[in-house]
Amino acid sequence: MNIQYNISLRPFNTFGMDVHARKMVTIEHEAELLTWLNESSVHDETLFILGGGSNILFTRDIEDTVLHNKIAGVEVVNEEEDHIYIKAGAGVNWHSLVMHCVERGWAGMENLALIPGNVGASPMQNIGAYGVELKDVFHELEAIHLHQKEKVVFQLKDCELGYRESVFKNKYKGQFIITSVTYKLNKKPVYQTGYGAIQQELERMGVKDLSIAAIAQAVMQIRRSKLPDPSQIGNAGSFFKNPEIEKYQYIQLQALFPQIVGYVLAQDKVKLAAGWLIEQCGWKGFRKGDAGCHEKQALVLVNHAHAQGAEIIALSQEIIASVKEKFGVRLEREVNVY
Ligand code: EPU
After folding, report:
1. Is 164 a catalytic residue?
2. Among the four residues 72, 171, 204, 244, which has the most C-beta atoms within 10 Å?
């Protein structure tokens, strides 16, 4: 365990916001966490849990104690004829886990390559990309209740995983710290290449024998070509969710905007591509000071160098207002704001 005071969080958030934490406690083992939580002095402290810092926009300094979760470790915990169960510490880097599994031929996560952040955030956000969501490979997770200081095991149904949503962002917000996640992977791969760009990229790469390694490579190429690398330009991936509207509204919009991009879902709902809506409002590549809208993917807001959280929020509000005015659709943030 490591305790630091008055520390800049700039290296710990991919948006690169230079806010300070009054106190940051870094834990690397579950036992260490329990010991610390049981110290009497901690009872009065309110905690802010920080993982990979890849889906958070800081707008101010943090008075709460920042608990930096760096619990490590990856192990096989069970094996069946067709499946293998991998348990990973919440502090393990997500992409390194994906590559660890791809290299061993354990299938299921390859479409989720290169998503920034750590294992602990994967169920929190129900991360997803290129036709696969975390819930497709999730088995269970362990979390510690911060007040009761007891370990709780959550099965898939307990997590209420939705589109970039879970109980940990909603009814249990701030109550649990996820310590490990167990994934159920396939020994015999089921390739997911239906998402448009993957097939094209595999063809461009000249792949003849499809493999999970090839899919991971294709996904990495696509992501690198569209999404800004946080080590170069601060960002937290998609800033907004793709909004869901009723099918009749979609038909009305289609009449006005024949190029509109939408995916028909069950129950007469349609998911619109927010990036398209934002681009049509003229924001793609926009920059004001150091706050901007990415030039290759309008859904991603960026910090070119020294933008403040408030400037990013102000830009996001202008974008929300213009999309509402042009299309009558309300965008919601996907990124967590502190
Ligand atoms: N589009 C535009 N202009 C833009 C951006 C997108 O017209 O500036 C259009 C594209 O041409 C395409 C459609 O919108 O027809 C969808 O774009 P894309 O495939 O890039 O995906 P997305 O819907 O914008 C979502 C996820 C991403 C994930 C990709 C790929 C959300 C909020 N975002 O983006 O996830 O990588 O699909 O599966 O669901 C993240 O959550 O941080 C994230 C990056």
Report:
1. yes
2. 244
